[in-house]
Design brief:
Two copies of one chain form a homodimer.
Chain A (H helix, E strand, L loop, with lengths): L29 H14 L12 H8 L3 H13 L3 E4 L3 E4 L14 E3 L7 E12 L2 H7 L6 E11 L2 E11 L8 H6 L4 H9 L3 E12 L2 H7 L6 E11 L3 E10 L4 E7 L1
Antiparallel strand pairs in A: 1-2, 3-10, 4-5, 5-6, 6-9, 7-8, 8-9
Helix pairs in contact in A: 1-3, 2-3
The first copy, chain A, binds a DNA duplex (19 and 19 nucleotides) through helix 3.
DNA sequence: TAGTGGTCTAGACCACTCC
DNA sequence: GAGTGGTCTAGACCACTAG
């Protein structure tokens, strides 16, 4: 076939055209191929979270494309919040390890009154084998080793959220109560700092449930009170699920806030 | 000050620079000014929902800018889902009046099993005066005339959501039960088709509550069952609130699904 | 074949940050 | 002043749709 005007470069060859295979065109514009290469480099940890990636013109040289094409690739990654652009400074790998990003995925806000910072307080941490549900959610074999964390989230020193968090043991080997207690900030900032696992997106399923004995004691509400049940799957680069959590949210003084577009 | 290289055009003058006022720079790039003009035209109804807007090159001539600048303005409006681009055909004003967009803001999905279409069934419709809460939410004076609609949302002929919907009377004058019953599709498609009101975004606040007598009968659950309470404010062009609704969602067979980025 | 959006390039210049 | 991202332009060409 035709490789058009694309030049070779160090890593692979870019195809400007149909990816052979006359059946389906699978046309992929150059900037998407650049985007995929950047994604690959991010996944491989070529640049650490919070660090600057090379400038647009450097990348243009590296990939033998124009600066505008690199720009468009970075634009998409910035829109997806994998990269952060800062005019005059450079483009940085997004990180949860930054107070402003600590609870980026938390949708709970106070019903009345100002926003107060959340605090994660670990309760327990143990090893387990994946039952059918966690196995399905985390896309690991039944019986695979897991680490489970129980913790609460406090606003103004009051428990508002109780979570049970399931992690594949392998990437998080070494996670224990001492580490959890020592860490300031969100769990995702810990995952990133200690294990190099960066969550890029998540999906939540919300239901209404009644507080059982355990939940009522944890959150300081009557047994039989209504609570939100929130299940979350978090994904790292390549949309690989790396965390499943199920939580109970008290909506006495807070509510789950969601923007619809 | 300096008007840079911008030329005049029919409607207003574009300023490439600081908007006078040395205090705050208020720099606004050209493409944002074009975007604002397009937004203004959309708000004024220059192009109807579902209709094509002029081509990029036509708009470039009209506004005396390059096609690339118009393109960037349209890009942002397309990202915000106010416009829809279709390669080879043109750029169209987004519309709720299209089966694929009918329940664009509805986050409820079946817990198990395939997605089934929702059906809106009106129950009541009456005139009222705005109490303090609707007045605040809709940004109208206390006592302002409202139209209130009660309806249920059905999946597979079963009631899953009960809503009470508050609308400012003025833009929706003429809305009644007959009209509601006659309309197929979502309320937003009706608002658009009959009243020219197009909702561009919304915000929801979710809490857990217990079913009272009325709610339990409506949704076919036990009194005291847990339900989601969902409040929504919907906004039209210019971020003007045009609808407030409060609903009860049964999460027996469905859950509220939310993507986090 | 004509018209539309989509991609890619090259170059100029502006805005912001830091030394 | 040097380096980075941000804007704007002009032109060429590709991909898709419809008459």
């Amino acid at each position: 076939m035709d490789d058009g005007k694309n030049l070779c470069f160090t890593e692979t060859k870019l195809s400007n055209w149909h990816d052979s295979m006359s059946g389906s065109p699978t046309f992929s514009p150059l900037y998407r191929q650049i985007k995929a290469l950047l994604l690959q480099a991010l996944d491989a940890g070529e640049w650490r979270p919070g660090a600057a990636i090379p400038s647009e013109s450097e990348l243009a040289v590296r990939y033998s494309v124009s600066q505008g094409t690199v720009r468009k690739a970075i634009d998409e990654l910035a829109t997806e919040k994998l990269l952060i652009r800062r005019q005059g400074k450079g483009t940085f790998v997004a990180t949860h390890n930054d107070p402003r990003q600590f609870f980026r995925f938390l949708r709970l806000v106070p019903t009345n009154g100002e926003v107060t910072p959340a605090r994660s307080v670990p309760l327990e941490c143990w090893q387990a084998k994946a039952g059918p549900e966690p196995a399905r959610m985390l896309d690991v074999p039944h019986g695979a080793p897991l680490i489970v964390v129980r913790r609460v989230l406090q606003f103004n020193k009051r428990n508002v959220v109780g979570d049970e968090i399931y992690l594949p043991a392998e990437p998080f080997r070494g996670l224990d109560m001492d580490m959890l207690k020592a860490h300031e900030g969100s769990l995702y900032s810990l995952f990133e700092a200690k294990f190099g696992v960066h969550m890029i997106r998540a999906q939540e399923r919300v239901r209404a449930v009644l507080a059982d004995r355990e939940g009522s004691e944890l959150l300081g509400v009557e047994e039989g009170s209504p609570l939100l049940s929130v299940e979350r799957i978090s994904y790292t680069y390549g949309d690989r699920p790396m965390e499943w959590r199920r939580g109970l949210y008290s909506t006495v003084d807070h509510c789950y806030l969601n923007e619809l577009n």
